[in-house]
Amino acid sequence: MKLSARNQIAGTITTVKPGATTTHVTIEITPSVTITASITNEAAEELALKPGMKASAVIKASDVMVGV
User: Per-residue pLDDT for 44 more than 90?
Assistant: First the structure.
């Protein structure tokens, strides 16, 4: 699959937690770095996401905010 997004970070899915409308998917990049994405339940089902699967976090954003 080719994507225009340049920020593609490979890792392994560690958790898949379905909720009422969205599923939270955690991808381990390194033992000390994880990324969590919130996707629709439908998308999670279509992708058949499971812990242990290889996956990429694809980040496409026009703004990044930092708060303290």
Answer: yes
